[in-house]
Design a protein that fits this description.
By secondary structure, the chain is of the alpha/beta class. The protein has two domains: about 1-125, Enolase-like, N-terminal domain (Enolase-like, domain 1); about 150-395, TIM Barrel. The protein has twelve helices and eleven strands. The protein has helices at about 60-70, 85-95, 105-125, 130-135, 165-175, 195-210, 230-240, 255-265, 280-290, 310-320, 335-345, 385-395; strands at about 1-10, 30-35, 45-50, 150-155, 180-185, 220, 245-250, 270, 295-300, 350, 370-375. The strands form two sheets. Strands 4, 5, 6, 7, 8, 9, 10 and 11 form an eight-stranded mixed β-sheet that branches. Strands 1-2-3 form a three-stranded antiparallel β-sheet, with helices on both faces.
Length: about 400
């Protein structure tokens, strides 16, 4: 088994939208194509990219991780089932890297890891979700897989000139697409005193809840880590009566003690974790963040956090601390995480119906019904079944 070739490129995913912390006007993404050859001469090309919210990583990819990956070969890349073993490639990429500092390098490694798993599933002639179930959940007879995956529509971004009417119209489009659970941004009125910002956001929330028939379990709100404790508590007190699906990333993702304080005062579910990029950081959140395994949601994104190899370590850590994989709903809205959600029995996956094209969204032939989606039966991750994304990836491998 050997890595034959690796190609990478930088593509724009720029948009005029903004959340409570950043705008996306200059956002980019790395895309890669990794060609693998098995011992019997079979070849497969896998593709990868990084999730939104982090920028492209051409320097790290070209200077460190692609050269190391190209040096990996032989037994280190071979799984006992005869297929490709991405963990061996991962170890080669992380050779001579010091522990700690889980920042942009986790994104670069995650891009390549995604492509390796795509190639591994293609060599096996299986969809990735099926390969994962076979390798990690006991095979075809070992577990009953979900027939569909739960997904929710993430949107509600701030946009110039966007008011209540436009926000409600956006959410109606998601309902028309088959979603029954939606998410919107809050906390994004820059320079506005907290009382005034909260008043504005409550009006936005109530407008969307009216569309949803008043059912708070169908609405998530997302702060993107902007609040300090005072603002998080003030918003929490105002949000609690609505019994929302979850209150997402109200605080800086690394401020574990403040998360614990918020959890003492806010009883409904809290969601966080999308900006933690290693098993060690995830473990610190579980140890010190005061989160509750009976209700809270963990949003670690495998594409941003060293890939699936590291995500498997994170899941093992969670199990050791009494957390079910069902409490994990990855950030990113991409097909890689969706395959992982189905194959490893997670609680669901994010979806971006209108933003971050062409990377957001799933296979074209899989419509959403009541916020659930079926998986295509295609070898690999299934990028080839998403036309706008495949146009980008196909050009890379040409």
């Amino acid at each position: 088994m050997r890595i034959v070739a690796v190609k990478d490129a930088v593509v724009p995913i720029a948009s005029a939208i903004a959340n409570a912390y950043i705008d996306f006007s200059k956002m980019t993404a790395s895309v890669v194509a990794v060609t693998v050859e098995s011992g019997d001469g079979r070849r497969a090309t896998g593709y990868g990219f990084n999730s939104n919210g982090r920028y492209a990583q051409p320097g790290l990819l070209r200077e460190r991780f692609i050269p190391r990956l190209l040096e990996a070969r032989g037994a280190a890349l071979e799984h006992p089932d005869g297929g490709l073993e991405p963990a061996g490639a991962w170890a080669a990429m992380m050779r001579n890297e010091k522990p700690g500092g889980h920042g942009d390098r986790s994104v670069a490694v995650g891009v390549l890891d995604m492509a390796l798993w795509d190639a591994a599933a293609k060599l096996a002639g299986l969809p990735l979700w099926r390969l994962l179930a076979d390798r990690f959940r006991g095979g075809p007879e070992g577990v009953e897989l979900d027939e569909t995956a739960w997904i929710y529509a993430a949107g509600g971004y701030y946009y110039p000139g966007k008011g209540l009417e436009e926000l409600v119209a956006e959410m109606q489009r998601y309902l028309d697409l088959g979603y029954s659970v939606v998410k919107m941004k809050i906390g994004g009125a820059p320079g506005t005193p907290i009382k005034e910002a909260l008043k504005l956001d409550i009006a936005r929330i109530e407008a969307v809840l009216k569309l949803l028939g008043g059912d708070g379990s169908r609405l998530c709100v997302d702060v993107n880590g902007r609040f300090g404790l005072h603002a998080a508590l003030a918003y929490g007190a105002a949000l609690e009566p609505y019994r929302l699906r979850w209150y997402e990333e109200p605080l800086d993702p690394l401020d574990y003690a403040t998360h614990a304080t918020l959890a003492e005062h806010y009883a409904p579910p809290i969601a966080t974790g999308e900006n933690l990029f290693s098993m060690q950081d995830a473990r610190n959140l579980i140890r010190h963040g005061g989160l509750r395994p009976d209700r809270d949601i963990l949003q670690f994104d495998p594409a941003l956090s060293y890939g699936l190899v590291e995500y498997l370590r994170t899941l093992a850590m969670l199990q050791a601390h009494g957390w079910s994989p069902r409490r994990c709903v990855p950030h990113g809205g991409h097909q890689f995480a969706l395959n992982i959600a189905v194959g490893l029995g997670l609680g669901g996956n994010e979806s971006y119906p209108e933003v971050f094209a062409p990377f957001g969204g799933f296979a074209d032939s899989t419509p959403v019904q009541d916020s659930r989606i079926r998986m295509p039966d295609l070898p690999g991750i299934g990028f080839e079944a998403k036309a706008d994304l495949w146009d980008v990836l196909r050009d890379l491998a040409a």
